[in-house]
Write a structure and sequence with these properties.
This protein is α+β, with helices and mostly antiparallel strands and about 140 residues long. The chain has helices at about 10-55, 60-65, 75-85, 90-95, and strands at about 100-105, 105-115, 130-140. Strand 1 (about 100-105) and strand 2 (about 105-115) form a beta hairpin.
Length: about 140
């Protein structure tokens, strides 16, 4: 007579492996989500700073503000965003942080991306995935539809 002793062991090993993979997935997803939240806050602050300083051109010093809007300076916006990210320690705290600043007629858009160090890695997953975010600061709300 054949016994069924030990037939549950492979099933338990399989379920333990599935639970372990789920734990790794949840921990890594949580880490990536928190990094994205940090980058969201940095992008918001950088866009506000860039919009604020990009609208303060030399025309205001030469001719005064008057009734017209100031033109946005792309170079001023980029300098302001980089200075903000340096000032708050983002470039130190997020190695590999990359920024892209885009200026349109009515807004300053800041796009940030940074690699994420995941505490656990799934087999076949990228070793350093990248998290991206963007934020915009509207300078002239009357131009927005």
């Amino acid at each position: 007579m054949r016994t069924e002793r030990g037939s549950t062991m492979p099933l338990m090993i399989f379920f333990a492996a599935v639970v372990l993979l789920l734990v790794v997935l949840v921990v890594d997803a949580g880490t990536a989500y928190l990094r994205r939240q940090e980058l969201d806050a940095l992008a918001d602050g950088a866009a506000l700073r860039g919009a604020d300083l990009a609208a303060q051109g030399t025309d205001a010093y030469r001719h005064g503000i008057g009734s017209d809007d100031l033109d946005l300076s792309v170079a001023s916006a980029r300098r302001a965003v980089r200075a903000y990210l340096t000032e708050v320690g983002a470039l130190r705290d997020h190695p590999g942080l990359r920024m892209h600043v885009r200026v349109t007629a009515d807004e300053v858009v800041v796009e940030l991306s940074a690699p994420v160090e995941l505490p656990l890695t799934l087999p076949g997953a990228p070793l350093r995935p990248t998290v991206r975010t963007s934020a915009a600061a509207v300078v002239r709300p009357d131009l927005v539809e």
